[in-house]
Amino acid sequence: MIGSLPARVLMALITVAACGPGFPPPDPIECEPAMDYGDVSPLVSVRNPLEPTQPIRIDATEVTQGQYQRFLEATNGGAEVSGQPTYCAWNTTYAPGTECFGPRVAEILACDVRPQTCVDWCDAYMYCQWVGKRLCGRIRDGVGHPLVSAATLNDEWYVACSSGQQYAYSPGSSDEVYKCNTLDCFAAQSCTYSPGQTRIVPPGSMPDCQSPSDNYHGVYDLTGNIWEWTNACDGSDGPDDICAYRGGSISHGGSGVRCDVIPNRRTRSYQSSEVGFRCCADPE
Ligand SMILES: [Ca+2]
Ligand SMILES: [Ca+2]
Prior knowledge:
Layout: H1 4-18, E1 43-46, E2 56-59, H2 65-74, H3 105-110, H4 121-130, E3 134-135, H5 156-161, H6 183-188, E4 227-233, E5 242-246, E6 266-267, E7 275-276, E8 279-281
Parallel strand pairs: 4-7
Antiparallel strand pairs: 1-2, 2-8, 3-8, 4-5, 5-6
The chain binds calcium ion (CA) (2 copies).
């Protein structure tokens, strides 16, 4: 958890500040029941259609706040930023940015079972390196590639999401999108959000939001919940390079959460309360 006690203290202060006369107090934030994610997300092997003997290895879940907290503790709260690539030299902290919290500050800080968001591309890149993995990117070498197309069998994240280009969404056709934490789910009332809970859910807590194909089973929330940074940038100059995040979030639905959509190409330094990441790794 991002400093369990300080987070609650901060929320309490914000709650007090937000409660003027005439406004009912907001529902208190409730953390979902603890789930055992382990120190790092487990890697799942999925089929590489171009080289079936070389499976793609991708995290089962989005990186959680509890997992990311270990990285912050190991880097003096995110302040020890040595070893970054030159195009990340501008990045002075791995700590999630307070400037992106906005009205969602409570959900961002509340629970270590929720996905880590408000991190820039370099934070995500360095976390994956720290756990011995790498940000998902081009198959085989994982390096960044131009944003020529998101729908390529050379892209680890896209192949895992589309079950090797079989489906438009992680759980299958457009009729299945409601199984993932998206606007479709919200509209179909198939998502259950308890009073006082936010709509971003703990990774993997919607068990049907995964591929129906055996070869791609066990990777959750590629569609929806939060967007996910990938190693797909249009340059290697610095904070203003445009990098792609993928899969949609709670604020999007329909074609906006397709596996091949890159609607919000943002700079390497961008942070959002609905953008996080997961990691990939080379074949064993
Ligand atoms: Ca940063
Ligand atoms: Ca996601």
